Amino acid sequence: MKAIKNTKLVTEYGIIWDAAVLWDGDRITAAGRSDEVQIPADAEVIDAAGKYTAPGLIDIHNHGGGDWKYAEDPVYCAKWFLLHGETTVLPTLYHNLNMQQMIEAKEKINAVRDRGVGRTMRYGMYMEGPFMCLMGSFQSEIAWSGDIREEEYKPLIDAMGKDAAVYAIDPSREHIEDVMIYAKKVNPDVIFAYGHSNATSDECRRVRKYGCKVHTHHGDAGKAPGRAQGTPGAGCDEYSLIEPELYSELIMDENAVHVVPDLAKSIIKCKGPEHIILITDSMPKQSDYTNNREAGIFYGPDLNYDDIGYLAGSRMTLEHGCRNLMTHTPYGLCHAISMATINPARMLGLDDEIGSLEPGKKANIIICDDQVNIDRVFLEGELAVTDGKVVMD
Fold first, then answer.
1. Burial tier of 327 (Cβ tally within 10 Å: 0-12, 13-18, 19+)
2. Residue 56: DSSP 8-state
3. Are 90 and 148 in contact (CB under 8 A)?
4. Among candidates 311, 296, 213, 224, which has minimal Cα distance to 259?
5. Distance from the CA of 116 to the CA of which of 89, 93, 110, 255 falls in 20 to 30 A?
6. What per-residue string of b and e applies to 179-196 under the rule 16 or more CB within 10 Å gives b?
7. What does the alpha-carbon distance between residue 353 and residue 154 come to, in Å, rounded to a whole number?
8. Is 205 exposed, middle or buried (0-12, 13-18, 19+ CB in 10 A)?
9. How far apart are CA 272 and CA 268, in angstroms?
């Protein structure tokens, strides 16, 4: 058994200022006030020195970081994000990968996800394509164009099987309902996200019944046209605000470029903090065109750009997203941690396994300060990060 003492425990309900956490193997056995958690004499005890203990961070929308994409080197990416407190990640495949590349990426991830750092990827992948509209970054590289065709979508969905946890879709595309029906047949638990789309709110409402649970990076995925010149339309953004059970993803970068502070505050106020999911939409260095200043505008050091200088996700890790949320909004540490832990766990239907430090759940744990600077990380009960280094293979 292992225990953490002399710590402040972050929960979705508040902070326990003098707390302890106990786990046996890969499962939490107790977490709460230090005078209520009985630590066995033979337990290995970690002194947090007054720092905070919180659940491991969950990043549902993440393409890769450092030097590589998940599709290319999943072990490298898992270590990169573990170093920053991310104990669960849905590797994200973009629609610039063709069918064969998507299948090969899945096979690489599946080959390592049941051991070591690969366990951060055990809950499947986020498919940001190919069923969105033909917009977004890296336009010159999009591998899927033209109409949605049965002879293309069925083999892809069959190949991805239950490993595709989330498909981002455009509700306005012809035959999108056929895609959704078939995907649910192959994987009844699959989740749909309102992805890059100029769909109207009515089109979003029409497909909601198939299992749409989340809106891809709110405020940064397209706009519905207005009915007359100069008027705004109601699309995915607006529909997600009025549909109470939908979750909204937010990319909270350092300079609040993806979502300006007042918009972020408006979204959170409308949805409620319990339906906000912080994501990174992280991209690796190899897709970085920051130095190509003639192609576009340099918005910030934690952002990524495509080949013509357009904004293309971020270079963040999720603890920075938590910190940026606290910088740009009035919401505090408990809100930020919940938006990066229990909220995505509930959206994925995994809140009985991960997302909070409660007895019976996975011992995915971070020790951090009040700015979410990571001190130590435990993955399924095992020490994974300490002294700024990944110590797990």
1. middle
2. P
3. no
4. 311
5. 93
6. bbeebeeebeebbbbbbb
7. 31
8. middle
9. 5
Q: How many CB atoms lie within 10 A of CB 296?
A: 17
Residue 38, class by beta-carbon neighbours within 10 Å (0-12 exposed, 13-18 middle, 19+ buried)?
exposed
Residue type, 91: P
Check residue 304 and give its pLDDT.
86
- 393 residues of the chain, pLDDT tens digit each: 999 999 999 999 999 999 999 999 999 999 999 999 999 999 999 999 999 999 999 999 999 999 999 999 999 999 999 999 999 999 999 988 999 999 999 999 999 999 999 999 999 999 998 999 866 677 667 878 789 999 999 999 999 999 999 999 999 999 999 999 999 999 999 999 999 999 999 999 999 999 999 999 999 888 898 989 889 899 999 999 999 999 999 999 999 999 999 999 999 999 999 999 999 999 987 555 555 444 455 778 898 887 777 788 999 999 999 999 999 999 999 999 999 999 999 999 999 999 999 999 999 999 999 999 999 999 999 999 999 999 999
Amino acid letter, residue 192:
F
Strand partners, 111: none
- Asked if 11 and 356 touch (Cβ cutoff 8 Å), the reply is yes
Give one DSSP letter per residue of 176-232, joined into a string: HHHHHHHHHHH-TT-EEEE-S---BHHHHHHHGGGTEEEETTTTSS--PPPSSTT--
Element holding 237 (H helix, E strand): helix 236-242
CA–CA separation, 140 and 308 (whole Å)? 9
Look up residue 158 and give its two tokens.
């069959």
**The overall pTM is greater than 0.90:** yes
For residue 251, what are its two tokens? 């990319």
What are the residues whose beta carbons fall under 8 Å from the beta carbon of 260, sequence distance 6 or more?
A: none
Q: Is residue 265 within a helix (H) or strand (E), and if so which, with residue range?
A: helix 261-271
**CB-CB contact of 200 with 172 (8 Å):** yes
Tell me if 65 sits within 8 A of 82, measured CB to CB: no
Q: Which amino acid is at 69?
A: K
d(CA 351, CA 346): 5
